[in-house]
Structure formats: structure tokens, C-alpha cells
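Final report, closing paragraph on structural work. Over the funding period we assembled a curated collection of sequence-structure pairs, and we close with a single example.
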Amino acid sequence: MPNTLEVVKETIEQFQKIQKHMLIAKEENAIKTYDSLKDDYLSLKAILNVVGVNLTDIDKIKE
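Its predicted structure, as stored:
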């Protein structure tokens, strides 16, 4: 069973990956793709906030 640090690390990696894809979708004006990714982004952001991760430096979307 993964420990808390491993779970947080994996969640941060997923958060950063989703953001990268959101930025590409926004650049390509892929509205439906962006909106779909945004759901995952908000869920991951909520999890990271609950566990106390400071998103100031890693949140590039700022939504």
C-alpha cells in the first residue's frame, strides 16, 4: 500500500500533466477537450488542497 508521500507525488505529477494538456487544448482552441480536462484539474486541485500542498508555484492555470 502506498504511503502518503507517494500518493501526493503521484497526484502532483497527474496535476502537472493535466495542466500541460489544458494549455495545449487552450492554444488549439479545443474547447470540449479543455472543459473535459478542467474537470480532472479541479478534482486533483481539490485533493492537493486537502492534503496541504501549496499550489502557488505549480498551478499554471490559476482557475
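Residues 4-27 form the longest helix (24 residues). The chain is about 70% helix and 0% strand. We thank the funder for supporting this effort.
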